[in-house]
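I am still getting used to backbone structure tokens and would like to learn alongside you. Label the sequence line and the structure token line clearly, so we can match residues to local backbone shapes. Would you write everything just below, so we can both look at the same thing?
***
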Amino acid sequence: MSGSWWKGERGEWYVVLQFVLFAILFVTPFLTPQWTGWPSPWNVVGMGLGLLLGVAGAALIMAGLLSLGQNLTAVPHPKDDATLVEYGAYKVVRHPIYSGIILGAFGWGFLMNSLPAVALAVGLFIFFDIKARREENALCCKFENYGLYQQRVRKLIPYLY
């Protein structure tokens, strides 16, 4: 990589912003005490849904990491020696790690009974959609058959989007 990381030739600033968003999402339920949460029994349903989404998100992240292997990079730009991965979690969704993080973020919001955290999870979805768009531009340049892969597999929500 030439130049400084903060110039963002490979999208390094996306990673910094991503961790800032994670931190804000994590602390939000603790900083919004005026929100009393969903009324009973919906708060219990929300907590159950939160656990389910959190576990599903963690599983998707792990499956994505295992499938990606040595191709893993935090920046939205493939490694120079990267290969196109279309198996494992990448058969279901093009960005399983992002999808898992998004699921986990929604899970956190529901688990903590925090509407502001759920709203931030929506923001995280939008952020990862933008980051994935930049990453896919680079992947299209690197792999000539990436366009066919895009037609077969959805970006962030399996079978939907």
Observations:
- Residues 115-142 form the longest helix (28 residues).
- The mean pLDDT is 91.
- The two ends are 32 Å apart (CA to CA).
